[in-house]
Amino acid sequence: MESKRQQKMASLLQQELAAVLQRDLPHLFSGGLAPGISTVKVTPDLGQARVYLSLLLGGDANERLEIIKDNAKEIRHALAKRIRKTARVVPELIFFHDDSASYAAHMDQVLGTLHIPPAPKDVDDSDDEKPTRPRLFN
């Protein structure tokens, strides 16, 4: 269970990191799309932030993640410039690939290929009788 302080810091980091990756450091992705930030989780001491990136569009996900990890220091520096008046300490950034969207697409494809027969119809149903309502008062 995250504290309010962790939630506020995670929200701030998510917004500002998205802006940093899209506006301040677009050269890291050589003309491709900047990754989306799915989730940010901050440790209780606010020393580390785990950043989960959505890398579906724009090429090989592992290659793009390595580029981001190699430039983590530059990303953290650009982030520090943006949040210097809001946060006292800029947490260490640890980047992860968030593959939940691709997993959801895979599960949707698997469920779409299943053959589920329709439920059998009951033979005892007679449509001419109305169901009786339970009596609430005697």
UniProtKB/TrEMBL annotation:
Its main location: cytoplasm. Residues 115-138 are annotated as: Disordered. It is found in: Cytoplasm. It holds the Pfam family RBFA. Keywords: Cytoplasm, Ribosome biogenesis. Belongs to the RbfA family. One of several proteins that assist in the late maturation steps of the functional core of the 30S ribosomal subunit. Associates with free 30S ribosomal subunits (but not with 30S subunits that are part of 70S ribosomes or polysomes). Required for efficient processing of 16S rRNA. May interact with the 5'-terminal helix region of 16S rRNA. Monomer. Binds 30S ribosomal subunits, but not 50S ribosomal subunits or 70S ribosomes. This is Ribosome-binding factor A. It comes from Hymenobacter negativus.
